[in-house]
Design a protein that fits this description.
The complex is a heterodimer of chains A (324) and B (321). Helix content of chain A is 75%, strand content 2%. Chain A is an all-alpha fold and 324 residues long. Chain A has a two-stranded antiparallel ribbon. Chain A is globular. The model of chain A has no long low-confidence stretch (mean pLDDT 86). Chain B is α/β, with parallel strands linked by helices. Chain B has a domain of 163 residues: Rossmann fold. In chain B, the strands form two sheets. A seven-stranded mixed β-sheet of chain B has the order 6-7-8-3-9-10-11, with helices on both faces. A four-stranded antiparallel β-sheet of chain B has the order 2-1-4-5, with helices on one face. The mean pLDDT of chain B is 88. The chains are: A mainly alpha (324), B alpha/beta (321). At the A-B interface, α9 and α10 of A face α2 and α4 of B. The structure holds adenosine-5'-triphosphate and magnesium ion. Adenosine-5'-triphosphate (ATP) binds next to β1, β2 and α1 of chain B. The site of magnesium ion has 3 residues of chain B, from α1.
């Protein structure tokens, strides 16, 4: 287990290196940030001054090694636009995105697993057919459109929830989050629901398919032959088995939601990391882009680690050490 | 004459599929006394498992019991509501399935799977149940049972898993065990050991056993009575020695001739020609007639039951030797 974790972390350091190089040179190829930062009227001398101040006058590989040197010391550079450390900018935005993603996962898992299991248990019931029809909508309706509709219905027509923005934060055990204030939760609900819909549809499908498949297996019949109540068969014997594919898919989803819930954050004017990266790409704010993607790599690595550990908890046949 | 532990009368279990009615079990009758072992034999697809599942009340849709009675300790299981049936399953009627690799849940520990089987019935606490699980594992000859309890199924060998399954079946001291090909997935030595254990345990506890198999050699080793199934019906039924030594139905004779045996060494193995008929909307009459050397026009009509204690259904039975 320890060996496994260490090996994983070593691999991820390699990935971080590769990632930093690709992004660094990639952004260099895309365009010159100086062009965007200085005003149109600026003369050649002004441009040179800005370039020199940002260190952009040097050859790109010199810039990269300077970056690496600083990065090893924990400094990922300052934002061209805001002039503050990129990492600080990202960390400021992180809680907003985290709380959004967490609530959307709670909605997706908390509703998706029971609904999907029901749909798989009674596949021919009217309830199951309604659930499955709903999940098709969840898959096929575009996120931005659903977001706008949610705003229309709950904020504009019924006026029971705010249309956007992050509400006031409460504090709990030293953590600041809208999760700890009622108004904050109100602001969180619609964007989280919007972000949850696709995952909800996914979890419903996975839970239903897993349920239907597992119910036919010998060990379910055998569990019933032991005289177990159906409740126990479903919630112990079946549930533990169908959690394996669900954890896999949600693990993958979790990372991309944290990194790229851009659409929802934009529609609901949610001050999260997704908005930050879009703005930074727009401004070719290279230090922020690079730092952002490095942070995302770290998050993905951590999530994968947790998922693998969860696997070995869920399925005793999975041995952590055996996998590379 | 007292009422036997189990009496199955004219059991019909049909699957109502889109293509038609599959008459998997179509008029099966037999009886079983306490402590006796019935061997239920027949080719693949003859309806042995469906018969077993009917007794357990575990026939999957679109199948259901379409007729007949299953009298167990005087109660008709075919008419029993699921709630009542659940209380019987695992407590008074236990089962052992064919492949222990498939029947134990791969993600739950052995102790979880054993303890739940006790708790579901006895209303016993966790600790009592664990004690019973340990005792049951010892009884079936599993070394270091405390360790085995903490293991997951994949950490045990096939033979060990099947012993666990047998231990689970015995834990609640059932009156009847339905064992559906429990040794088919095991190699011959382990099979022999398990046969011996099960036979011993049944004798000790007075548990009746239905042993489902397609292997006549296995049945010969342990059964008191034998029922030979063909295409959803019992075509021959009687004391094991009678049926094996003096078969009356041509199908039984064919099965026996196809078993390799030492006294007929060198002689070619006889095979029953043809294939098992489809059970989808079967025609009336003896369903074996298309494969039978003795068949005649008479066989298009259902053969009447004949023979008394050694019963058979055939218009042209072999002579009683
Ligand atoms: N769910 C089902 N739907 C339709 N037909 C079924 C179903 N289950 C079983 N049958 C039919 O019932 C018949 C008897 O099956 P059964 O499993 O009892 O055979 P068996 O004698 O146990 O054979 P084997 O030795 O292969 O286990 C088969 O012809 C099969 O097609
Ligand atoms: Mg079978």
């Amino acid at each position: 287990m320890t060996v496994f974790v260490i090996r994983r972390l070593m691999q991820s350091i390699l990935v971080l290196f590769a990632m930093s190089a690709i992004v660094f040179f990639g952004v260099y190829v895309v365009g010159d940030p100086v062009e965007i930062l200085v005003s149109h009227e600026a003369d050649e001398a002004e441009r040179a001054r800005v370039a020199a101040a940002l260190g952009l006058d040097r050859p790109v590989w010199v810039q990269y090694f300077a970056f690496l040197e600083n990065a090893l010391g924990g400094d990922l550079g300052k934002s061209f636009v805001f002039g503050i450390p990129a990492i600080q900018l990202i960390l400021q935005r992180m809680p907003a995105t985290f709380e959004l993603v967490i609530v959307s996962f709670v909605i997706a898992v908390g509703l998706g697993i029971p609904l999907g299991m029901y749909a798989g248990y009674r596949p021919n019931s009217a309830g199951a057919k309604t659930i499955m029809a709903g999940s098709i909508l969840g898959f096929s309706l575009p996120t931005f459109w659903v977001g706008l509709m949610l705003i229309m219905i709950f904020a504009v027509e019924m006026q029971i929830l705010p249309a956007g923005g992050r509400g006031p934060v409460g504090s709990f055990l030293g953590m600041q989050s809208s999760l700890f204030s009622w108004t904050g939760l109100g602001h969180l609900f619609l964007p989280a629901l919007n972000l949850a819909l696709f995952k909800l549809a996914l979890v419903i499908r996975l839970a239903r398919a897993g349920m239907r498949e597992t119910l036919l297996l010998d060990y379910v019949k055998y569990a019933r032959a032991k005289g177990l109540a159906m409740r126990r068969v479903v919630f112990v014997h079946v549930l533990k088995n169908i959690m394996i594919p669900i954890v896999t898919v949600l693990g993958l989803e979790l990372g991309s939601q944290i990194a790229f819930s851009v659409v929802t954050e934009t529609v609901f004017a949610w001050p999260g990391m997704g908005k930050l990266i879009i703005e930074s790409i727009d401004k070719l704010d290279r230090p922020v882009i690079v730092a952002y993607l490095l942070v995302i790599v770290v998050i993905f690595v951590l999530i994968n680690l947790v998922v693998d550990v969860l696997y070995s908890v869920l399925d005793p046949r999975v041995r952590l050490a055996a996998k590379a | 004459m007292t009422e036997p532990l189990l009496r199955v009368e004219e059991l019909r279990t049909h699957f109502f599929t889109r293509a038609g009615v599959v008459k998997a079990v179509d008029g099966v009758s037999f009886a079983l006394e306490r402590g006796r072992i019935l061997g239920l034999v027949g080719e693949s697809g003859s309806g042995k498992s469906v018969t077993g599942f009917s007794i357990l009340g575990l026939v999957d849709p679109p199948g259901r019991i379409a007729g007949g009675r299953i009298l167990f300790k005087g109660r008709d299981l075919a008419a029993l509501p699921e709630r009542e049936m659940r209380k019987l399953r695992g407590a008074e009627i236990a089962t052992i399935f064919q492949d222990p690799a498939m029947t134990l849940n791969p993600v739950l520990r052995i102790d979880t799977q054993m303890i739940e089987a006790v708790v579901a019935h006895a209303g016993a606490g966790e600790e009592t149940a664990r004690g019973r699980a340990l005792a049951a594992l010892r009884k079936v000859g599993i070394p270091a049972p405390e360790e085995r309890l903490r293991a997951y199924p994949h950490q045990l060998s096939g033979g060990m898993r099947q012993r666990v399954a047998i231990a689970i079946a015995l834990m609640n001291e059932p009156d009847l065990i339905v064992a559906d090909e429990p040794t088919t997935a095991l190699d011959v030595t382990i099979q022999g050991q398990i046969l011996y254990e099960v036979q011993r345990l049944c004798r000790e506890t007075g548990t009746a056993l239905i042993w489902i198999t397609h292997d006549l050699a296995v049945v010969a080793a342990i059964a008191d009575e034998i029922a030979v199934m063909y295409a959803g019906r019992i075509v021959e039924y009687g004391a094991a020695a009678e049926v094996l030594d003096r078969p009356r139905h041509p199908y039984t004779a064919g099965l026996l001739a196809s078993v390799p045996s030492r006294n007929r060494k060198g002689a070619p193995l006889a095979q029953i020609p043809g294939m098992t008929p489809s059970l989808l909307d079967p025609p009336p009459g003896c369903l074996f007639r298309t494969r039978c050397a003795r068949a005649s026009a008479a066989c298009a009509a259902d053969p009447p039951p004949a023979g008394g204690a050694h019963a058979f259904r055939c218009h042209h039975p072999l002579e009683a030797a």
